Amino acid sequence: MKHLLFVLLSFSLVAQSPKEKIQVTDLLKIKTAGKPLVSPKGNQFIYTVTSIVDDPEKKNDFVYQTHLYLGNLQSGESRALTSGKNSISSPTWSPDGSKIAFTRDMGAKSQVYVLDLAGGEPQAMTNLPLAVSNPVWSSSGQDIYFQSSFTAKEFLVDSVYNKKGLLPSWTLEKPMLLGVAKKSKANPNGNLDEVRAYLAQNEVDKKAKVINRLNFQEESTTTSELPLPAYFKTSLTGKPVLLNNPFQRWSDVEFASNGIYAIVPADSLAHPDKVLDSYIGFGSKVIYQKAGYKMSNLALSPSEKWLVFQEAKSTGVQNATLQIISLTNPSQIVKVLIDRVVTQVKWSSDESKLYFTAQNQGGAPLFVFDLSTKQVKQLTDNNSGVLGFDVTNSGFVYAKTGIENPSEIYQQSADSVRTYTSLNTGWLASKNIVRPTKHAFTNAKGYKVDYWVMKPTDYESGKKYPVVLEIHGGPSAMWGTGEASMWHEFQYYAAKGMGVVYANPRGSGGYGSDFLAANVKDWGAGPTADVMKALDLTIAEGWADTTQLAVTGGSYAGYLVSWIVSHTNRFKVACAQRGVYELSTFMGEGNAWRLVPNYFGGYPWEKTTKAILDRESPYTYVQNIKTPLLIFHGENDLRTGVIQSEMLYKSLKVLGRDVEYVRHPGGTHELTRSGNNRQRLDQMLRTYEFFARYLKIQ
């Protein structure tokens, strides 16, 4: 009896033991499920799992690994199909369900592999000097389509795939030079053609980078090269065959039994960087075109009778419209009446319904469109995000993110939902998770603005706490409980004793085109009013310490942080990450430069537009910034450009303000989402440490 009492007492103590707070290194524990794909027979599905593991080659560093898993829809069992240091991507079933094709990362040149479920190791189907992606099986199961790319210079001289000597129909835009240079011996002392050959060799040897393109900025470097999408077909025993003329610049292709549907630039004579309009083509035939519009995201129906696509104006700010075109009668087009950013579509097997996911009020729910009634119905709530899904015989299987868990696979039937995987449930069981409360208000423009409030993990009634206002980027991004990227950061700050407030101000996605465009020519004051209203309503709850306020955000949110602290001194401390601070400069140095004409109606050399850009640039008001500011930027971030942060930091330093500037070597704009994991930890810890200098947190 004494032993039983001891066991019961021990169990009681364990059951009542407090849960642990989220730690910064819990970031490394998060596993992420990829899009599930149901087998042709409907009894199994495949999915990927991305983990963060120790880097075997660099001590104290970490790498991402993505591997393939097979799930049984009846038994609920799963098993890994791949392992090792080489990650895989884009898995796809063969038509009979006996094999799976995928690409495997083999360093700089990923290749297509096929795994036979009957047994054996994955077999390489390609061995090209080019990186390949997105394998797709032919309907017969005897061939595999896949994508790669050449540079224009590579394809011009390629003796295998350009035997016919194909040339671009558009100019290479070398001033005063027409066509392709003659083949000559390189000689710096020779005639003009030989000098040109010598100079061309210097470019090959990376002694010079000659830029004639408009879009010369990539994510981490500049380039003079123009990538040309190339589509191939290979049999399981043969060699790859090139299916298109890469100079035609196809994109978003769908492989039909009798040809290829593709998005094609509307003007074949203009340089591709300058062509914004596009059309849907089938070989040389135009299926659908509309002046002033661009198409994207094709999805062919099972019988090849219908084609889904999205259409948007080529310039300006609006959501794309989801449409369905009849391929037997292209004049017959059905519009899906939903004014949201659609992220994935899937046909039902009988083509009576179209399933899709879309951003919606802080979530990413699943919807269905009935082709007979033309009605849209929402199938899941806005409290979570469906990040990838497929249709089963009795419902759905999907990867989902939510507050309780950042990523798992779920199986849903008509009357039940079950958690299929346990990627994160184990380590989360001992953690104290803070659940945000959703609120809303109506702003000065009459728009409903959603915001969320998280109290500190150890919140006690009657106490006052510091609060951090978190702002999202984009500016067309959307935050909410169905968005995975900020799950860990929000929980971490709550664990450190701070309340967290985040909102979707005017200009956010997930609320329709009018709301999306409500910040056109108003990046600063309007959105500031919205996020500050969310903060003020939180303060009105009575638990926030108004002398202990912080604000942070990245990209456009880095912009808005700097705007806010240049217009108010309410915040004790601030952190601006990878932001844009001077809009005229951004036009030149960021690869996202088209935001300037789209949002502000013109270019910096135009007097009217220049006045707007100056008015809307936080840098114009830099002398007003007195809030201590931490500035982050990835050393190789060309989406916004590092000169932006250098200007802001240098100016504040000259003004004698409290400012600290952190550059992450090799870091790009994606650093906090998918970048080097040690740098992700570093940025979060540096932000916390900087805040702790000014706020009452430990």
TrEMBL record:
Q: According to the UniProt entry, what is the EC number of this protein?
A: 3.4.-.-
User: Which keywords does this chain's UniProt record carry?
Assistant: Hydrolase, Protease, Serine protease
Entry's SUPFAM superfamilies? alpha/beta-Hydrolases (SSF53474), DPP6 N-terminal domain-like (SSF82171)
One Pfam entry name:
PD40
InterPro entries with a match to the protein in the record = 6-blade_b-propeller_TolB-like, AB_hydrolase_fold, Peptidase_S9_cat, WD40, WD40/YVTN_repeat-like_dom_sf
Q: What is this protein called?
A: S9 family peptidase
Q: Is Transit peptide there in the keyword field?
A: no
| Record GO terms (molecular function) | hydrolase activity
Instruction: Give the highest taxon in the source lineage.
Output: Bacteria
- Domain named Peptidase S9 prolyl oligopeptidase catalytic: which ranges? 488-696
